[in-house]
Amino acid sequence: MDPTNDKAGTDGTILPALPEDWQRCLAVAAHPDDIEYGTASAVARWTAQGKHVTYLLATRGEAGIDGMHPDQAGPLRESEERAGAREVGVDDVEFLDHRDGVIEDGLVLRRDIVRAMRRHRPEIVVSGAFTVRMVMGLTNQADHRVVGLAALDAARDAGNRWIFPELADEGREPWNGIRMVCLAGAQQPTHGVDITGEPLARGIASLAAHAEYTKGLGAQGFEPGPFLTWASKMGGPALGVESAVLFDVHQLIPDGPPPWV
Ligand SMILES: [Zn+2]
Known about the structure:
By secondary structure, this protein is of the alpha/beta class. 36% of the residues lie in helices and 15% in strands.
């Protein structure tokens, strides 16, 4: 893709800005560093507005470093994730301890996410695309697909006391307040967040905190600053701004009065 193409990422129409009339967000991802490939810059913008964002990671990313045994890589990547989160104003980072690379799609994962949603009571959920093909036609990784779809389904289950009734027994009452689930890395985004300037800079610092992990990507010449600047400039024109991160927004609660009234 050509970053100077003003139709990049869309059919040329300007996308609406993602609504920001909310206070609490839960970001759900498979691995440490997933949120940092763009979404973290939007998180920086939101925390600067006084919003509260919590990170929920399905794994510790222990299978992510070729030259390091998972027993060492797990704790290292956890600490890099916590440091990266702090760069964008996030102090709450939780891990579900599913196995990296082989996350099982199913009710155990969904229940774990529902439990966190009922505890944190977010109004929006941010996760990643669950399609096989994702932005730029890239093939989406198995854990990413599983976690993205589980997050979308869990957002609805969170409000139903008869789904996972054992959670109510734990004191986790249903939460019906999730308005939308926003998926990053989608082929056809519907909304965008302007991250021009400071949010992008903080997002770059957030990805740079994953120093040990991204060292392993060095053979491909990977550098957080140039990469995120390039990616956000590809997204910018779709929103009519310099730099943007784009999301495919799935609405759970409709805006405004019912159209049949
Ligand atoms: Zn990942």
